[in-house]
């Protein structure tokens, strides 16, 4: 059993003034900062750049008067490599005066030999470093202990996911949870609940407003089976890598689970890629059948389709204020009467391939937020109502959701269950944009994220990179800087963003549209800015590259290619097209090679 001093805390009244003071007087620099969702506190860790000890400054919004020499708001935090032994040791000494289990880690306050009562500022905290940090304030709660620690008696929204809970902007459930927290809702996450018991699903109680259900970052059938329909043994989003916690058709399974054990239940809202891609009646490869909209099969109340961060905020506010939900863009629901442009019914498309194609064509023609009409599709005597998609995100929208505080780690509750392989790829990767206009026929991105590329600002991306440099295990390598197609960052067709995407032609197929003017200058600038940051050694681009865009960009294309190949390839360059079969490429709406 060993103890090391981790940090010393002092409370401050004017954070900016204190930061300036410690920098000027002692050369201490900000290493990391944590903010409360409700703005009630900010914690900043300062480092001297040499030792591992930190000075923690805590700012409390409620404090309005100056502290008198700290006003007993000091603590010293120690880390130990064996919490249980340390705990027993202190217990035997009789010096533990307060214990808490917070955010799935354990801390104890021990008094020093000067005595707890008379010298309360002598308190020491020590934490179990094997199960998490002392105060992991940025995770969304997944246990009642965390909910209670936040002073909440009940949650407004519980999100249920087929992945483990990784707190990262790459994980939709985490991003949606964070944006709802920012809006003032009390949110919790239940990841990969067991299906045969109420224990997991009701761990956080019944939410006051709604359940949000997602199959995870990948459709559960794709996660569970190979294209040859063999069961996959491993799962990158499950602790321990073993594929044993994600049910088939997870959205339906979790909605059933909620209804079975939670009676009465608040509304069940479906979301994520599994629900989004199955929002209308659709062909299901796994059963080789046409299936109904997942909203009917899961008996959900609402379905949020697309990236979801805009409609879910409106939906949550509407439910809270008991306002109309039926007009929110980007949601679907079931009604007794039709509304909007009618697609051929579920029953019709099960009998006629022609009707199926017509239904999909009309659906696809109505996926651009600027031009789409609302749709409906009869399922027996009821109707699926599909509102037009939510508007494309602006750059401030994108910055807002990515600038939220993320841990870029697995929640300690789930981390204790084993390593999560997906973290290797996403922990130190940076998403730059959503959307893709490649429209490859095998790909789901256009239907889910949209055909309009929606970018973060360079400043927001640089902020995230700088944050990585404060993590002790960051080795200086950003593992990816990209989006669905990496080199779509930073430019779009002006016609598309003002009037909507063309319905009679593709942006890149059969040939790149003359109105599209690829321009790699912003991506190049971004790479240069990141490469110049202290603490960044390498920025890899592991998202796919479209080389037809490079060829079309006469001003910057070759400069980008040269920089990409020289500085940003890790192992293998991921080209968008990795086969040369003319037949396959044209069937997939990709141009043949060398054209
Ligand atoms: S004008 Fe060309 S690039 Fe723009 S949306 Fe239409 S097809 Fe795409």
Task: Summarize, please.
This protein has 22 helices and 27 strands.
Write the layout of secondary structure elements.
Layout: E1 3-12, H1 15-26, E2 29-35, E3 41-47, E4 54-60, E5 75-80, H2 83-93, E6 96-102, E7 105-110, E8 124-128, H3 144-149, E9 157-161, E10 166-167, H4 172-182, E11 187-191, H5 198-201, E12 210-214, H6 220-224, H7 250-261, E13 268-271, H8 272-277, E14 282-284, E15 289-291, H9 294-297, E16 302-304, H10 309-320, E17 331-335, E18 341-343, H11 346-351, H12 353-365, E19 375-379, E20 382-386, H13 395-402, E21 409-410, H14 412-415, H15 422-426, E22 429-431, E23 433-434, H16 445-449, E24 454-455, H17 458-468, E25 477-478, E26 480-482, H18 494-499, H19 521-531, E27 538-539, H20 547-552, H21 557-567, H22 582-587
Parallel strand pairs: 1-4, 5-8, 9-11, 9-12, 12-13, 13-16, 18-19, 22-26, 25-27
Antiparallel strand pairs: 1-5, 2-3, 3-4, 6-7, 7-8, 10-21, 14-15, 16-17, 17-20, 19-20, 23-24
